[in-house]
Amino acid sequence: MKGALFLLVWSLICWVCHGQQGGIATEEYHLPFPMQSCDSSGCQEEATTIVIDADVRQMYSAADSSVSCQTGQGWDSELCPDGITCAENCALDGIDEAGYQSIYGATSDGETIDFKYLTESSYGTSIGGRLYLLASENEYRLFKMKNREFTIDVDTSQLPCGLNGAVFFVEMEGDGGVSSYPSNSAGAKYGTGYCDAQCPTYLRVIAGEVNIGQSNYGICCGELDIWEANSAAQTYTFHTCTSEGYYPCQGVDCGSDATGDHYNGVCDKDGCEFGAYRMNQHEYYGPDSSFDVDSSQPITVVTQFLTEDGTDEGDLVEMRRLYVQNNQVIRNTRVNFEGIPDYDSITDEFCNDYKELFGEVPDFAAKGGLQSMGEALDRGMVLVLCLWEDYSNHMQWLDGISPADGDPSDPGVLRGPCPADSGRPGQMHQNYPDAYVRYSNVKFGTINSTFTL
Ligand SMILES: *[C@@H]1O[C@H](CO)[C@@H](O)[C@H](O)[C@H]1NC(C)=O
């Protein structure tokens, strides 16, 4: 069985072959998270489930699950002389139902996912993380969203300043990369194949290859941030790329800040975003009933992907936002700056105008704008639920002041009401160990079919 693999099933096979050894790998479990697909005649349930990201799993020798592939210093030199051999020699551990909760802080009651900020276990401290929606055991649920709408209930009431309980889509491969990269036979079942528009270089495995000390090697793909939020602030953003699909980048293509290539990479890292507070509406979203959208209660977040001619084939031209709370449909707020129109949705014109007003580089346009995002939606994207903290900017770009030395009276500098010294992970761990985010009621369908007007 040479040429195998990077997976747990292999470990189980070995266990069967060789009898019981130490450190037996665990059989993978997936959290129930059924969604509904809807059209004008109603909604149908799909038995979708949630899998946690591959990057946080233990990696063992596929031949002997008592031997870890990772050592204190890095990678076991025998198992991992190079990235491909390492992927072939090592197996990702499965996680059982108890492990999802006790190691990673993720639970389902059959309909609702709760995801904790901090979870202490014998493996150490787990800090939020990424969860992906599966259509079946080995395949992610691919969403093709042009001329459709996506709806999810979020509860951000237990997320303080500095945390981000996000809902987004990225153009991962449906099988997690198994067919593209033979050294990956674990696949979506084990949460492989993450990518995003920041072209992350920190991932342990990229394109079926364990990243053993390669520098400036990353993985890019289009990203659509439906919801990035805590109880103080929220925004929605699109990040498009000139590359198609799951795209391993090297050098300039990765758009690294360290090499001064922020705008030279394949993806629009800045994105184009609509955040109520940043658009100068400070009473729209917040943690009590005096706000139009009350973050102390669950919120139904509806996002509509409208095409120029109202067909599935037309170019994507607008991303509209609605909320539903207490049986009331709440319109998105409007841009509130002199000198630009009072837009209430994301369009290329909105992006151009606010970027010019804020003095930002219109990289979204250089990378193809909404039309290019629409092409990624046509190819299909994977749903990610993600809870994270921010070591580099303390989430101030979402909920505080950014840049830190910016003048708060300049348009676009104030992002939210959070203090400038909030969001520091060290303090957050002390002060908010019990923070969590809650997700439920994913619905997907034709325009106006997933909620009641
Ligand atoms: C959806 O509802 C809105 C508000 O009533 C309406 O303006 C729009 O035309 C509807 N769109 C479709 C495709 O039904």
Characterise this structure:
This protein is α+β, with helices and mostly antiparallel strands and 453 residues long. It has a domain at 130-446: 1,4-Beta-D-Glucan Cellobiohydrolase I, Chain A (Distorted Sandwich), CATH 2.70.100. The chain is built from eight helices and 30 strands. Strands 1, 4, 12, 13, 14, 16, 20, 21, 23 and 29 form a ten-stranded antiparallel sheet that branches. Strands 2, 3, 8, 9, 15, 26, 27, 28 and 30 form a nine-stranded mixed sheet that branches. Strand 10 (118-121) and strand 11 form a beta hairpin. Bound molecules: 2-acetamido-2-deoxy-beta-D-glucopyranose. 2-acetamido-2-deoxy-beta-D-glucopyranose binds at residues 447-448, 453.
List keywords for this structure.
disordered N terminus; hydrolase; ConA-like_dom_sf; alpha+beta; binds 2-acetamido-2-deoxy-beta-D-glucopyranose; ten-stranded antiparallel β-sheet; cellulase activity; nine-stranded mixed β-sheet
Concise description?
This protein is α+β, with helices and mostly antiparallel strands. It contains eight helices and 30 strands. 13% of the residues lie in helices and 32% in strands.
